[in-house]
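Q: What structure does this chain adopt?
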Amino acid sequence: MKMVSLLLLLLLGLCNAQDGSDHGAESEILMDQSDTEDITTTILRMNNGSTELMLEGDLVIPRTRNAMKCLHKPYNCRWPKSANGNVEVPYVLSSKYDQSEKRTILYAMKDMEANTCIRYVPRARQTAYLNILPRFGCATTPGYVGDKQTVSLQRFGCIDHGIIQHELLHTLGFYHEHMRSDRDQYVKINFDNIIESFEFQFKKFDTDNLNTPYDYTSLMQYTRRALGKGNSETITPIPDASVVIGKSKRLSDIDIVRINRLYMC
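A:
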């Protein structure tokens, strides 16, 4: 009887770990990012099983880059500049986060502000704003959408400095590095090694590369074995296959340059 009770408690804990809105202490042990796990692996793991239609693993396709090109859209995909020259991005931070989680999110924002003209401001009455809440996974929609924009940062897994900045870069209009238009000069995509049905996450886009070089250290660069069959290599850097990719924990120098060029800081 004791064994049955223990099994029921374990199953209950696993079910609670899938709830994107709130988690107990047990789920922190199950879902938290390991010290050795890279950002890409964590994001893809956290989003595994999401009911949202994902592009690139963590971009929610609206049912309504380097940098994305603002083509054929009813809105400008870049956040507007304020009269003071800064780009103010209003946000609402869910009350379901505890104080430590809120501090981590706010610090990631402050770190992005440090060398750019991006300024994250608490929402007053703005129509367009980031709604940051602990839904399932780590994901958002790309670019400025002119309305409420959900940024999903699940507790016990997504509250990590690099992951937060990665998702915020998406909201500013940036795709993953391996999707940029000139990527074939810098990386080889090993399509035979990609898990079946995930090939679309390695699609090449017509991006605005902002006259910046390909950046293996970008916070937006996938790891070598992202979505690989049996942990096989899906992205091989060229011409030097020994280059380390996808291991950054915060904005790279080139990530900062691109923000400033895209928003004319």
